[in-house]
Amino acid sequence: MSVEKIKSDGTSNEYKIVLASEEIEEQISKYITEKAKTFKMQGFRKGHVPTDIVRKNFEHEVVEHAIRELVADACSKIVTEEKLLPASKPLYEIKNEYIHGKEVVCTLKIEQQPEFTLKYFACKLDKVEISISEEDIQNEKQRIMSERPVFDDVEGDYTVQCGDFVMYNAKCKINGVENKKHSTSSSIIVPLNKEEHNEFIKMFVGKKCNESFMWSGENGVEFDVILRSVKKRVIGLTWEDYLKRIGITLNDDNISKSIEQSAKNLIFLYYKQQLMNYISEEYDFAVPDSVRIQETNNVVNTIKQSASPAEPDYSKTKEELAEEYKDLIDKRVKFGYVINKIAQDNNIIVSEKELTQAIYSEVYSNPMQSDNIIKYYRQNPGAVNYKKASLIERKTIQFLIDKCETNSTKTLSKAEIDKLLED
Q1: CB 55: neighbour CB atoms within 10 A?
Q2: Which residue in 77, 120, 136, 248 has the most C-beta neighbors within 10 A?
Q3: 107: nearest Cα among 2, 9, 14
Q4: Rounded to two decimals, what is the model's pTM?
Q5: How does residue 423 score in pLDDT terms, banded at 50, 70 and 90?
Q6: 151-233, what's its fold?
Q7: Long-range pairs for 275-282: beta carbons < 8 A, 24 or more residues apart
Q8: CA distance 363 to 375
Q9: For residue range 307-321, what is the model confidence (pLDDT) as tens digits?
Q10: Are 1 and 105 in contact (CB under 8 A)?
């Protein structure tokens, strides 16, 4: 095996790796020997199939495995000898098909974490305090009634209106053939604002219970949708009547505390925004392309999923959004690296107890999805690591907030705090 560095631009290194046929065959032989121990084939006892027959059955797989193992060994050696800190999973590309007796040429790309030195932190924050007004409390009551509406049963020939709750069955057909796996039973609340109706939701308005319609998707997929039940949204309830209908007790003190907690979360984001701007101005280093691409996908997908049809971002392409939010994406990536280094240098960690509490707090906040949330974290170690990283980031940001001097302080209402972040 020979390794040659062919490119280095500060954020990534690229290498040419030449693998000799002899070492590829050696790896293939090891892999086939292991495969043969458990390989079954008619006419042979388990584990006694000749290795040449085993190889014939796994020809493409064994060659791919051999090259992958050799490249991984080369990558490990490069990282150790050059003392690299990979920013993402190294990528390799095979340049020619393997022919027995011939060498294979591969290219390997290793992106590095950026190198920078932490600077003295001298950010001054514009601090905010909240003053909860009667208007804030009334607005919160309206928000609660809007997000958790009350519905009444309907009779006769009632047709679906904006705001109503609809349960439906959707029988899936692919190229005219029923597909039970993708058939579903679900429900929707038709938005009160018609501008928030997508083409699917529009099909429900004006329909009666037990009526049906056909919805066409892509690639020959169709859904035969039938309305199972309809409930009418109750409009114009007083706060007192609303509480009686949903069967809970919620006084102004409880609402005030809820508003205060929500405001504190928004104020935290406002401070984070200021810290991000400060770090963006203070630090100038290149970031790996793969990390920027991943963050771009995260930002763009979040925007696309949260935008309503009434918002400008709804109709924009992913490419347009990526270009529009390019500066924000660069700030977020750079901010993440600096925050991570501050956490490491100051030994800011998250204990297993804190991690467990955070996950179960998410469960308690979404009781209808509790089983799915627990299952998701149990089956996805990456999700647990992401949760842990987000907690460390939050603790580190709070660490910086506590260190920062105050530039100015202003007292705002909840509505004004909302506007502060929008601006």
Answers
A1: 18
A2: 136
A3: 14
A4: 0.76
A5: low
A6: Chitinase A; domain 3 (3.10.50)
A7: 275/123, 275/125, 275/335, 275/397, 275/400, 275/401, 275/404, 276/331, 276/332, 276/335, 277/331, 278/123, 279/331, 279/334, 279/335, 279/338, 279/339, 280/330, 280/331, 280/334, 280/335, 282/119
A8: 11
A9: 776 678 878 889 999
A10: no
